[in-house]
Backbone:
């Protein structure tokens, strides 16, 4: 149901979803059903001014997400769906982990 709602949201409704969900996006992404909903949210947000907000909610946990079976799908969707200039947060986090 949540995934279907993402397809129907207006820009204002997407903003409301982000207002409510941003603080929990990482936790939601670690759940099988939650990861699917977050992937749908990424698809819905990709051509909106809300991309930086979505990135901000995920960027501190990129490495943890990549190590989780469900979270990894969320990171992959970011790389597939978000504009190229929004990918840097993933590359920075992974590079920092390799250096450490």
Residues:
């Amino acid at each position: 149901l949540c995934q279907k709602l993402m397809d129907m949201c207006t820009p204002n409704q997407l903003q409301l979803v982000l207002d409510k969900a941003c603080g929990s996006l990482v936790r939601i992404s670690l759940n099988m059903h939650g990861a699917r909903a977050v992937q749908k949210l990424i698809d819905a947000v990709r051509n909106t001014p809300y991309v930086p907000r979505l990135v901000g909610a995920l960027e501190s946990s990129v490495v943890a997400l990549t190590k989780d079976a469900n979270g990894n799908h969320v990171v992959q969707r970011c790389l597939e769906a978000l504009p190229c200039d929004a990918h840097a947060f993933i590359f920075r986090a992974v590079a920092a982990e390799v250096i450490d």
Observations:
- The chain has a mean pLDDT of 94.
- The two ends are 41 Å apart (CA to CA).
- The helical segments are 2-8, 11-21, 25-29, 32-45, 51-58, 62-66, 69-81, 88-99.
